[in-house]
């Protein structure tokens, strides 16, 4: 079960429990000075994001601590594209094939994956320059068609930054 599904289940269980508890109280709660009716603490407790210990570049020997779990579930294989200038990237595990209209066969490079709480980043080196694709969930339009993609992409090659969209393939 993914962390996202576990979190949703916890939130729904907490909300259901709060509703049932609230229905059992015959007397209304006294109103506090903030005007929130005492519900603030329950809402904060229910919505608090879970933290899971996972290995990250900052964890390991000499770097104790926890980081937020990877909550962006991506397909194993992705296709990212950008327009003006046109570019494409096919990601399959640790392999990324980057293509352009001038080089349609593409250049295959090895990438590493780094996960944040709301994004996944793939990084490698292309023609001696650092290449990074940062993928985040959210509707994305390529600006040229009516298609809506499930992921937005930021592509960096050295100092050059472009935007694009991605989908599973």
Give a short synopsis of this structure.
This protein is α+β, with helices and mostly antiparallel strands and 169 residues long. The protein has two helices and nine strands, in the order ααβββββββββ.
Would you kindly provide a written description of the structure presented here, covering whatever features stand out?
The chain has a nine-stranded antiparallel sheet, with no helix packed on it. With 169 residues, the chain is α+β, with helices and mostly antiparallel strands. It has two domains: 3-47; 77-168. It is 18% helix and 41% strand. The protein contains two helices and nine strands; from the N terminus they run ααβββββββββ. The two termini are 22 Å apart. The protein is globular, with a radius of gyration of 22 Å.
């Amino acid at each position: 079960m993914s962390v996202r599904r576990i979190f949703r289940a916890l939130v729904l269980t907490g909300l259901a429990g709060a509703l049932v508890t609230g229905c059992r109280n015959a007397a209304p709660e006294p109103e506090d000075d903030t005007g929130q009716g005492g519900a603030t603490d329950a809402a904060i407790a229910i919505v608090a994001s879970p933290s899971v210990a996972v290995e990250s570049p900052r964890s390991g020997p000499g770097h104790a601590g926890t980081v937020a779990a990877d909550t962006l579930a991506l397909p194993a294989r992705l296709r990212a594209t950008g327009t003006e200038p046109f570019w494409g990237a096919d990601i399959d595990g640790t392999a990324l094939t980057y293509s352009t209209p001038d080089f349609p066969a593409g250049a295959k490079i090895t990438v590493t994956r780094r996960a944040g709480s709301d994004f996944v980043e793939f990084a490698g080196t292309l023609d001696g320059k650092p290449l990074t694709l940062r993928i985040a969930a959210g509707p994305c339009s390529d600006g040229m068609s009516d298609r809506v993609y499930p992921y937005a992409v930021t592509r960096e090659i050295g100092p050059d930054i472009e935007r694009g969209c991605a989908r599973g393939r």
